[in-house]
Amino acid sequence: MGIRFILMVNKQGQTRLAQYYEWLTLEERRALEGEIVRKCLARNEQQCSFVEHRNYKIVYRRYASLFFLVGVDNDENELAILEFIHLLVETMDRHFGNVCELDIMFHLEKAHFMLEEMVMNGSIVETSKANILTPIQLMDKSS
Amino acid sequence: MSGPSLMDSLFQRTLEDLIKGLRQQLIGEQAFISKALEEIRKEIKSTDLSTKSTALLKLSYLSSLHFHDMSFATFHALEVLSSPRFSHKRIAYHAISISFHDSTPVLLLITNHLRKDLSSTNEFEVSLSLQCLSRIANVDLARDLTPEIFTLLSSNKLYVRKKAVAVVLRVFEKYPESVRVCFKRLVENLENSDPQVLSAVVGVFCELASKDPISYLPLAPEFYKILVDSKNNWVLIKVLKIFAKLAPLEPRLAKRVVEPICDHMRRTGAKSLVFECVRTVVTSLIENDSAVRLAVGKVREFLVDEDPNLKYLGLQALSIVAPKHLWAVSENKEFVIKSLSDADPNIKIESLRLVMALVSEHNVAEISRVLVNYALKSDPDFCNEILGSILSTCSRNVYEIIVDFDWYVSLLGEMSRIPHCQKGEEIENQLIDIGMRVKDVRPELVCVSRDLLIDPALLGNSFLHRLLSAAAWVSGEYVEYSRNPLELMEALLQPRTSLLPPSITAIYIQSAFKVLVFCLLTYLMQRGSTASSMFPDNLPSAVSASVSYESFDDLSVENVVDATDTHGPTCTSASITNESIVNLLNLVELALGPLLGSHDVEIQERARNVLGFVDLTKLDLLNSSVQEENDSERKGAEASKTIELMHGAFSKELGPVSSSAQGKICLPDGLMLKENLGDLEMICGDIDQPSSNSFSFGSPYEEKGGVSFSNLQIKENSRQSNESTSLLAEHRKRHGLYYLPSGKSEMISNDYPPANDPMLLGNINDNADDLVKLTEESLTPKRKPNHAKPRPVVVKLDEVDEKPESKEDSLSGAVHDVLFGSEDIVPTSSQSNLSDMPSSKRKGKEKQHTDSHVESKENLVDHGNPSSRRRKHHSHGKERRHRSPRKKNAEERKDNGQKLKEKSSHRHGMHKSGQRAEEPFNFSVQTPVIPDFLL
Predict the structure, then answer these.
(1) Residues B57 and B49: beta-carbon distance below 8 Å
(2) Name one GO biological process term (chain A) (predicted).
(3) Where are the alpha helices (DSSP H) in B665-793?
(4) Cβ atoms < 10 Å from Cβ of B526
């Protein structure tokens, strides 16, 4: 399934966005997020961005106060996922203009919408910023 | 009703209000949220759709980020879904996709909503429902909506079509029959030139191919075209992943794709694509030398890069290459070893794995030495990581790479002295295992165990308790190799053993018992020999034992003879005098006396056994030694008879037990296990069985008869402080002389480096340099023409290997059907093995089996020593044990072979088709498909 979940977590370990591509119960999600956040936030800049966790990998990247964590299957290409994270940030940047944690907090729906444009069923379907943002802009106009 | 509802909607808090409130609340987050939830529960019942949808939106937020249950709102979500307004639909679809799952009761009510939206003219509505479907589709939804998906797959709106393509994956998974309908259109999309659709299609095929590659082999030409033509790195990476799965199945295909892959590797600037090419080459095109060289060159670039990410991935790629091309690792060994001291624990672990991959029979000693030294300096986690990997590498395949077991055993002893060591359990298992399997190493093993036992400092580390139990067991079981049994006894009974958990104390007592019996026997023999002067010279006592003993138990005697033969005078050099025996008996009484009051039954019982034995023999022995001639003859004989009896009981050799041993025992007639146990289950159905790790040893001779003899039982429960410990403490104060000499313990504790090593960060790079230098020679695989001594025999048992069942995959079956159309024979996996498979595989296995068997037998026979009676016996026993299960398992193995064949034919069917082209029946269907592309 490629990507299993995408999380955005701030420095304090609070989840700001969570998107799962497989069904997990609330308890499983709580445990998973707790473990991952503990594991990844303890790491520093000199360490690599890949962490093995249970039977999959986590690829993460930090932008200012926000960590982007993506859980992927073991044979997924780590560098491509890092590029994907960067693409996601750039897309949000283009939409919000200098995106920050608050933008995502208050426009969670839009952030989800962008993600849904980019990833379906755990695989990346769209990588062009323009294509991702057009429907959102259309919807903004219409409402 | 409408009044409050109106008020609600007028003063309803929006999501933004909720988030702001959550940030500014003063009453605590939980309290605030539960208040908000209360509001939401009220609002969501509103008849006004915008109130309802806002409530749902807030609820989704709380569920997604604060883990609050929203299952109560499933029906409300459906209601919002039926709203004509797009913004409401959006909220509803989002809520549904995060809260619905296969067992949601209202799931089926959604079918019509989805169908309506899927055929809507508004492409965004279609897209919303497709996205939702990709998250929640179950069998029913997938089946019912297949026609709509089919239509959308050729929609002229690209935005819709790419999403329909992405949804197909989930639909196929849930409802394989849909493949028959949709697959052709999916393939058409593969030929589509639009980049948007293409990346979605390739993503779908990548997932499909990863589960069942063989079905997609016929599509290779399309994938190849994409590999050559596409400029999109995302798509290329996915296509490479597909080829990584397909290439091993069809050698001609592998040859064909190597060139374009290498091209990409040379040309592209994108690291992600380079890495994917490297990974494809090292996983699937490993036979192609030039490609592998190119890939390893790229890996090297990764390794020297500053970016830790690339370093990590480079190391990972190396570890994939390592099994087939070890040169790639040795070429880069400098980087690998330097990375052992990287700032990143993940990188350290990767490089450790690589170093372990370099280990071979010739350099295992050097590498282990370097690593153990390094472990001393590293942080606790990594230290244990190192120890763990040394242990697992060395024990792999029944200690395959170990030649010098004396060295290995002393290494084990050394490892357990590393302050951070937490591998007590693993070392315990290996000590015992080696003791049982490798006869020649026992003297050294006893020596190592003695060093461990005698060190009072080790008793304080609870991680080592399991290890100490092994040391105690070894020194009891093989006490005849001990240089000084009396010293061993003191070590086993030292006061600090009160720190051990009860289960291990019990093992200590049992071992002390064995040592005691051995000492007494030695003493008796000595006395006997001097008294009767049948043996005028002072031969080692054990030899005399062998003579007086022969009729009684020849096995044990030869044991002893072996010991004295090989290690002659060093063994049991401390002659046991009358006085020392008296001291010994007193020591036992003093040390075990307090344990009679122990709360642990096991300890109490064993202590009582030993003391009973002491009582029984003490009187006789001492009297006989004081009195002369007449009386002593009779009384001494009585005592020695008891001692001999006990010795006989202990001296049967224990061997390793095959994990499948239990299965080989045939059920005695008239024993009806199931019925009896059924009753038992009824009686104690609700009583929890305490889980205990039990360790069982069986002697190879008894095993056949169906007696399994459990000697050690290790339970992990800490000992409660009780009266007896305080008694013991007092006792210790009074009898200070039974402490081990304090000088010795100090000396040993000086060897300990302090837990917090002052030289850390500063020196770590120096250390690394040292390491590099140190291993410079040791890592180059050099040949030692002759080993100083031959590898000792390691007893192995035949393992029954388990074959996983090959499972029927309906999805692949369906794909096959579609791809191969209406041909007469459908080569589904289950049918392709109709032909008689060559029995060579099975024969080979059988042959290997017998070969190893013969080899081990030969080793046993030509071992040189003339004490052949026991040896013969041994090998006979082995033979019998080897044979009987083989007969018994013959049928079973046939079955297994069949299964294996089925499986392999399933996996490599295509591959074989190339080789066995002369067989017309098998693959007449598939063969025409591939040459299209290859020619």
Answers:
(1) no
(2) intracellular protein transport
(3) 673-683, 700-705, 723-734, 742-751, 761-779
(4) 22
Cβ <8 Å between B312 and A50: yes
Domain count, chain A: 1
pLDDT (tens digit per residue) in B560-615 = 444 443 333 334 445 667 788 888 888 888 888 888 888 888 888 888 888 888 88
Taking the C-alpha atoms of residue B585 and residue B576, their distance in angstroms, rounded to an integer, is 13
Q: Pull the structure tokens for residue B620.
A: 């006789």
CA distance B598 to B620: 29
Q: Which of A29, A44, A48, A62 to mutate to test the interface with B (most CBs of B within 10 A)?
A: A48
Instruction: Please calculate the CA angle B110-B112-B118 and round it to the nearest 5 degrees.
Output: 100
B chain contacts of residue A23, beta-carbon cutoff 8 Å: 101-102
State the average pLDDT over residues B304-310: 91
**Burial call B478-500: b when 16+ CB within 10 Å, e when fewer:** bbbbbbebbbbbbbbbbbbbbbb
Q: Which amino acid is at B902?
A: E
Q: Identify any residues that bridge with A52 across adjacent strands, giving them in sequence order.
A: A57
Among partner residues A43, A50, A108, which is closest to B61 by beta-carbon distance? A108
Backbone phi, psi, residue A12, to 5°: -80, -5
d(CA B377, CA B34): 51
DSSP assigned state of A107 = T
pLDDT at B624: 56
Residue in A with minimal Cα distance to B64: A18
Collect all residues with Cβ–Cβ distance below 8 Å to B404 and sequence separation of at least 6. Answer: B365, B787, B788, B789
**ipTM surpassing 0.90:** yes
Instruction: Say whether B89 sits in a helix, a strand or coil.
Output: helix
| Partner-chain contact B308 A29, CB within 8 Å | no
Least Cα distance to B57 among B110, B16, B114 occurs for B16
Give residues 340 to 359 of B whose Cβ lies within 8 Å of A. 343-347
User: Taking CB atoms and an 8 Å cutoff, what residues of chain A touch B135?
Assistant: 21, 121
Question: Could you list the residue range(s) of the whole structural domain that residue A37 is in?
Answer: 3-142
A67-101 burial, b at 16+ Cβ within 10 Å, e below that, comes to bbbbbbeeebbbbbbbbbbebbbebbeebbeebeb
Tell me the chain A residues in contact with residue B284 when contact means C-beta distances shorter than 8 Å: none
Mutate: best of B281, B344, B379, partner A, most A CBs <10 A: B344
Helices (H), B464-600: 465-477, 485-492, 502-532, 541-549, 554-567, 578-592
Contact at CB, B308 and A47, closer than 8 angstroms:
yes
Nearest to A124 among B167, B203, B275 (CB): B203
Q: Which residues of A touch B16 (CB under 8 A)?
A: 106
pTM, to two decimals: 0.69
Mean pLDDT of B483-504: 86
3-state per-residue secondary structure call for B593-625:
HHHHHCCCHHHHHHHHHHHHHHHHHHHHHHHHH
pLDDT at B555: 39
Radius of gyration of chain B (CA): 37
Q: CATH number of the domain that A107 lies in? A: 3.30.450.60
User: Residue written as tokens 């009220």?
Assistant: B42
With a cut of 80, say whether residue B511 has pLDDT above it.
yes
Q: Locate tokens 């040896």: which residue?
A: B871
Can you read off the two tokens belonging to residue B668? 């005695």
Q: What is the 3-state secondary structure (H, E, C) of A80-102?
A: HHHHHHHHHHHHHHHHHCCCCHH
Strand partners of residue A3: A72
List the single residue in A with minimal CA-CA distance to B274. Answer: A79
Q: What are phi and psi of B620, to 5 degrees?
A: -60, -50
N residues, chain A = 143
Helix axes B424-437, B380-399, angle to 10 degrees: 20
